[in-house]
TrEMBL record:
It comes from the Bacteria. Residues 23-263 form the AB hydrolase-1 domain. PANTHER family: AB HYDROLASE-1 DOMAIN-CONTAINING PROTEIN (PTHR43433:SF5), HYDROLASE, ALPHA/BETA FOLD FAMILY PROTEIN (PTHR43433). This is Pimeloyl-ACP methyl ester carboxylesterase. It comes from Palleronia aestuarii.
C-alpha cells in the first residue's frame, strides 16, 4: 500500500502492482481495495491499482459532506495525476461504477474503458433500502466466528458460497474492537444514503451512462441482484448493443469477480482496450 494527499488535505491509501495496461479498481460504498483480492490473480499481466476512498479502509476520514460521488471522482482523477497516468481502464463495483460513469461525463479523456459491476443508471429501490438498513452500523457480533456464521444469511441472493469465502469477507470488512466487531469505515457514510425527499425528482443518471459512448463498456450483474434489475440491464443493452454483458448465477449484490462468467467478461473487455 502507498498513499497520496488529496487537494483538500486527506491522505488516501491505494495499491499499485504489476505492469501493463493500467486497470483501476473502484469498490462499493462501504468497501475498500481488498474487494478485488479475488480478481487480482487473474490480472497478472496488467498494472493493477485499487483505491481506498476517503473514509474507508486505511484512508483518512473526511468531512461527512465530502462523501459524495463528485468529490470521490475528483479523488480518483487526482490519484491518476499522482501516478502520472493519462488514462486508465476502470472496473467499478456499485459506487465505483457510478464514479466511473461520472468521470465519463466530466473527464472522459482519463478513461480507457469501463466495466460496471452490478450497477447501472437506475438503482432499484429495494436495493437502496437494503443498503440503508446496514450502512454506518456495527454488525453486533462479539467475534469473527459469530460474524462468519451469520454472513450467509445476511448476504441475500448468494448461493453455494463456501464458508472459507465468508471467513475472508469478515476479515476484510470488520475490525476487532472492545465491544465486539466494528465496521472499518466512517459511520457518517450513512448520511449519504438517507431516504430521498419525495418532492424532489431523483437525479437522472442516464446522461452519465450515455457519456461513456465510444468507450469499451462491459457490465457484470449478479443474477439475484437487488440493486441492478434485469429491466435496467435490458435498457442499458438497448442503448449500448456493443456492450459486453454477463449475469453471474447464484450471486446477489455484488459478485466476487472470480466467478467464470465474470472473468470471461473481463477478459473480453480487456481485449478491447
Amino acid at each position: 500500500m502507498a498513499d497520496f494527499t488529496t487537494s483538500d488535505g486527506l491522505r488516501l491509501h491505494y495499491r499499485d502492482e504489476g505492469t501493463g495496461t493500467p486497470i483501476l479498481c473502484l469498490s462499493g460504498l462501504t468497501r475498500n481495495s481488498t474487494d478485488f483480492d479475488y480478481l487480482w490473480p487473474h490480472l497478472a499481466d496488467a498494472r493493477k491499482i485499487a483505491l481506498d476512498y476517503r473514509g474507508r479502509g486505511k484512508s483518512d476520514w473526511g468531512a461527512p459532506e465530502s462523501y459524495t460521488i463528485p468529490v470521490e471522482s475528483r479523488d480518483v482523477v487526482e490519484l491518476l495525476d499522482h501516478l502520472g497516468l493519462d488514462r486508465a481502464a476502470v472496473i467499478g463495483t456499485s459506487r465505483g461504477g457510478l464514479i466511473a460513469l461520472l468521470m465519463a461525463a466530466m473527464a472522459k479523456d482519463r478513461l480507457a474503458g469501463i466495466c460496471l459491476v452490478d450497477i447501472g443508471p437506475e438503482i432499484a429501490p429495494e436495493g437502496m433500502a437494503a443498503i440503508r438498513s446496514y450502512v454506518g452500523r456495527n454488525p453486533g457480533h462479539a467475534n469473527r466466528k459469530e460474524a462468519v456464521a451469520a454472513r450467509a444469511g445476511l448476504m441475500a441472493g448468494f448461493e453455494g458460497v463456501p464458508e472459507s469465502r465468508w471467513v475472508e469477507e469478515v476479515e476484510k470488512h470488520y475490525v476487532e474492537a472492545p465491544e465486539g466487531l466494528a465496521i472499518n469505515y466512517d459511520p457518517a457514510l450513512a448520511q449519504t444514503v438517507v431516504e430521498p425527499d419525495p418532492d424532489t425528482a431523483p437525479l437522472d443518471l442516464w446522461p452519465w451512462f450515455d457519456a461513456a459512448s465510444e468507450l469499451p463498456l462491459a457490465v457484470i450483474r449478479g443474477s439475484n441482484s437487488d440493486l441492478l434489475s434485469s429491466e435496467t440491464l435490458a435498457k442499458m443493452c438497448e442503448r449500448r448493443p456493443d456492450m459486453i454483458v454477463a449475469e453471474v448465477p447464484g450471486r446477489g449484490h455484488v459478485p466476487f469477480l472470480d466467478e467464470p462468467e465474470a472473468l470471461d467478461v473481463i477478459a473480453k473487455w480487456r481485449a478491447m482496450l
